[in-house]
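Table S4 entry, P-type Zn(2+) transporter.
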Amino acid sequence: MTGADTSEERLSWRVEGMDCPSCAAKVEKAVARLPGVHSPRLNFTAERLSLALAEGTRAEILAGQVESSLAALGYQAHRLPAPRPRPGPQAHDPAPDHQHGHDHVGEATCRAHAPGHSHTGCEHAGHDHTGHNHTGHDHVGHDKAGTAHPPHGHAHDDAQAAGAHNHGGLAHAHSHDDPAEAGLPLWRTAKARLLAGIGLVALLGWLLANLFPGAAEWIYAAATLIAVFPFARRAFALALAGSPFSIETLMVVAALGAAAIGAAGEAMTVVFLFALGELLEGVAAGRARAGIQSLVALMPRSALRLDAAGNTTEIPAADLAEGDRVLVRPGERVPADGIIEEGRSALDESPVTGESIPVPRGPGEPVVAGSIATDGALRLRVTRAGEDSTLARIAALVAEASASRGRAQRFVERFANWWTPGAMAVAALTILVPPLLLGGDWSVWLYRGLALLLVACPCALVISVPAAMASGLSAGARHGLLVKGGAALEAIGGARTIAFDKTGTLTEGRPRLTDLVPAGTEAEDDLLALAAAVESGSAHPLARAITEAAATRGLAIPEARAAGAIPGKAVTARIGTRQAGIGSIAWAEAETATLPTPLATRRDALQAEGKTVSALVADGRLLALLALRDEPRADAAEAIATLKRQGVATVMLTGDNPRTATAIAAQLGLEARAGLLPEDKLREIAALKSAGPVAMVGDGINDAPALAAASTGIAMGGGTEAALEAADAALLHGRVTGVAELVALSRDTLRNIRQNVGIAVGLKALFLVTTLAGITGLWPAILADTGATVLVTLNALRLLAWKPARA
């Protein structure tokens, strides 16, 4: 039904028994014929069917009709509850205002600010920042607004196309195992029993034919009729459901036709090989689907919920709710996303991020569902549970991504639409033309035409792309590379240029103390302790960088009294008997004297490296210079070098000042384009796209316009809401080398697709020629169909073992 009047309600089912993407087309087609159904969508990989209700349609009545219709076709449909709305991203409170002056060189000095006060000149190296506030600024000429943008929209194929492959008008309806058989050994499944039964019939036919040679053809014909009956019944049901040219129909016609012309023994072989092929197809498809569904299996089934008294109760993990407190013992998986309230442990987060090294976590830090507490017990407060957890959302995104169609898949489907009628036309011409025009033997050419009918099904060709895409997407997700669809996975590998944001992408996103230059003979540790004491009351990133440096050295920080601020210039405090302050160079020179030449030279050198330089003053004397910078990520230079080896050009697009950008770019080995407003970045990306596809890498929070403008947007992030939603791909582990890994994964997946298409088309073309030439017959033709499908699927499954070079 295609009426425009629909209700807002959607119904969803899990459909069991589908063995190949063409099954999805058959299900979609059957459901679409029901009155009251609008926009049916079926995701083959996720086994999920959803549809909208036409206006005035009663949900319960339509649900019963859908389930009955699918049951008649051999599928089991299990109704799913309506999804709950997911909570939005958490708001972040701005940091307390903190005023003091620095000579700011670098985007990091502006990054964490919340809107509220005017801030100009943040991007100019070596300038004194009059009126500078570390929190609450409007960033003039800056691209880091500190606010989350809505997800951008790249052009993707609608999920309605997911898994809906028409095989050139053919529906491919395999035998469908009962859901109760899930987890049974292969030999106990319905398909295995059917194959065993057909094999037994064939064996009895062979024995009887040897005992009664004169009746061999009749015996084989009877055996063929018995063996083909289950497929004939299914072919008839498919024809009534609107799919008269299914592979079952073609196989039944070919087998019965062969028996009729005296090739019953070969017809029996065709039926047996067809049943064998279906069994192998089901196994291969199940393994491909399991590759994605294994992400969900990483979630623990149960959880230990804590009550107010601290007692634990074991409950299903799915029953956890936001605000619950849970206990995670050493060696157990975390059952839900949460915040640690008590305890410390090294967490193995590889199920979510692909990071193999456990990460130490303690009170106040977040944890994600599916991670493993390796060496300590934790008490958590649940923030997201069940289908809202990060791992569940990743699994859902991967399943949805596997349903989207890229350019390769659309091309293959168009080719399949041409191949099937073309091959059937050739089969008809083969049967008719030689006997009618050339005096050929009707039985010979009928035999060859029947064999060509079996070559006509493009099952292997149609599954060649989605099988590889699903495996590639699943492999990437297990290594922290989340790609949201086949189109994006194809595009990443074809990018000519990759543009990077600087702050939080190529750099760590927070400043660090890099240099402390004493002005006299006082020890560095004493100077750092004094500076940390002055900054101890501030939560500003620059202040934290100084206090963290002191903590790293294990220094005792003196108590600060009478803390104050000189707006835009410095912060001050009384430390013991000394009146100390940290501020800009201009403020320090006004308080003391002009910098000595050696210190002035050192200041200029530090600023040339893109660093923010401040001065430590006490009792009217300049004590030291402190240099801070948002340092490049440890793997950034390696990532850029790897991309260059892959033949990809790289460029940094940043709102930071040219001096800082040039310093960072020189250190990492890429081109820098600095001082860019957000609209400038869009123009730069448009210019780059004129030379070929462009990928943009940002932090997934503040770079939405640039991510949307690029051919492909890639977000850095540790599984945050913004990182998951804002781009076409997300690097969950936050490593810059993940960009090169994405390129490698994309190219390996495309190589696998080319191999699959070569196998499918090559085998079909080979058997088309050899069948026409009379070299091969019926059973090689069915082998070409089912065998090619199995080979293509198994080749695609190799991608599940894909690992990035680092691993």
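The first strand starts at residue 6 and ends at 16.
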